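Journal club prep — side note

Before the paper discussion, L.F. wants everyone to see what a predicted structure for a comparable chain looks like in token form. Sequence:
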Amino acid sequence: MKVGIDMGVAAGGVAAELDLEELLATRLLVQGNSGSGKSHLLRRLIEQSAPWVQQCIVDPEGDFVTLADRFGHQVVDAARTEAELTRIAGRVRQHRVSVVLNLEGLDVEQQMRAAAAFLGGMFDAERDHWYPVLVVVDEAQLFAPAVAGEVSDEARKLSLGAMTNLMCRGRKRGLAGVIATQRLAKLAKNVAAEASNFLMGRTFLDIDMARAADLLGMDRRQAEMFRDLARGHFVALGPALSRRPLPITIGAVETSARSTSPKLTPLPEAPEDARDLIFTPGPEEARAVVRKAPPPAPIPTADLLAQLSRPKPAPMPAEQPVFAVIDEAEREAGIEAVLREILEDADAAFRSDAVLYQDFLVRCRIRRVPGEPLPLSGFRRRLAVARAGVDERSADGEAWATALALSEALPDDLQGVFLMVARAATNGDPCPSDATLARAYGSHSPRRARRLLAYFEERGLLVARTDFHGKRVLAFPDLGCETAPGDPDAPGEAAGQRDAAE
């Protein structure tokens, strides 16, 4: 089905139509300096295509949240954990809901990590949910930078990898990338090169004009025209727009951004008491007056000698504790028993840490475990160690102590999987299967388990290899040990137990 999106007016006064079905297959790159109308163009495209295709907008400034009132987009606040954003993205694809990922209020590195987690969740959705989605990324140079900046290498690799997957491999999964950037020179070339449609707006720097002219197949001498483009005027090229460079003017939009361009307003008349208004604190300003304490009076020499010659006072008897002394061994035994009860539940692996933590607190009260309850962070750590299933033989070794130290640098939701494979290596047990690792992570997808092992290998924590029988072996350079060969396609422990029972 061919759907034409009205983007405005083209040269000659004809309507500028964008073939939506062709756009979903060929992707779009929008470039324009600040104030060129780039966000206005994206808003026009989103509004016109909203009735026809599911949409996901990665919004670093919170300008597109106004779409929710008019077109029913759900706003996803990015101030969540990366694992939670990944799960939300999977449900977005499953239920085909248009969303706006609001990254406002986060610093650049947090925005990169949140966007990478959300795009990764949409990319890794099950094949049954590969419906067409228009993924709009504003300020794409933040998420796919051409060079390393002040952010960490890990955050840059995660974000750049997610953007590369979107533009290079997303078409087969129904993801159509629409990326907008202020400067082409700051955008990674492998991300920009995957777009087949272009809308180039006003730009002034020579390097950006040269790249824009190259992408549009124009002569370098014609690149000067990009300096003269007015706000809202773009040059279009691509199979979804035009086979030749075509100047277009973007039409009006129905919604508006929360932030607008600054407008000049006349200054008010200067008040006569302007000096007092500036230098006199208001009544709501609590100013603490800091006064230096006077120096102490000098002590006479005779008094100092008398103090030194006095005998030491007898020590005070130790005070009896008001509360009963807590037996740490009893407390640890109670916590271990509660953790075992939780892990014995077959559905515990697929519940969130917050739900398991509430269950843990209730069980501790039932068992009357003494002392203060574990905090959530401590519970996650203990739960990860318990899920690994370490025994007394490996718990006393140096290799397991090293594995615990290495796991502290990983996110909370990945520590349990890493400790499980590390325990198998320290004990010389067969490598766990993909189904077992996926269950430890709280997922049913074996592909997610393989991605976790690839993530550990990228960080240099382990090395995966396959023997001549097709079985997997995981070697840990820092631990000096490796797992026995294991079948990656074997059923999980819980599934194997059910099959044996039947």
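L.F.'s comment for the group: The longest strand covers residues 242-250. Keep this in mind when we get to the figures.
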